[in-house]
Amino acid sequence: MGVLHFVKPEPFDAIVPRQLPGAARTWTHLSGVAELGCAAAVAVPRTRRLGGLLTAGLFVGVFPANVKMALDYRRKPAKQRLVALARLPLQVPLVLWALRVRDKAPR
User: Residue 52, Cβ neighbours under 10 Å: how many?
Assistant: First the structure.
């Protein structure tokens, strides 16, 4: 997903909360870098512990964008609304997974 922030940034730009300062594209690129960095950190055993913690933080940090998407999709077709709404509770198992990665990583 991190690569998509650069290849096809428009959908990500659209869900950046307007309350954030600066351009939406900047936030899209920053979150793409964060996703790629977290993925790399989780993939390497030596940095997996920190990577899991950072990934959990990333999942929490992007939650407002998922809320914005769900609100913006209220008038979209049912399938799109369902996808947008399903993203909200899915954040919980993602955060728990990332924390489990941290806890099981070698010290």
Answer: 22
Nearest to 35 by CA among 103, 96, 98, 86: 98
What tokens were used for 12? 């990500």
In tens, the pLDDT along 40-99 reads 999 999 999 999 999 999 999 999 999 999 999 999 999 999 999 999 999 999 999 999
Which residues neighbour 1 within 8 Å (Cβ) at sequence distance 6 or greater? 35
Burial-class residue 85 by CB neighbours within 10 Å (0-12, 13-18, 19+).
middle
- Under the banding of pLDDT at 50, 70 and 90, the label for residue 107 is confident
The answer to whether the CB of 67 falls within 8 A of the CB of 73 is: no
Instruction: Please choose, from the candidates 30, 29, 16, the residue with its C-alpha nearest in 3D space to the C-alpha of residue 72.
Output: 16
**Residues in CB range of 85: below 8 A, 6 or more apart:** 70, 73
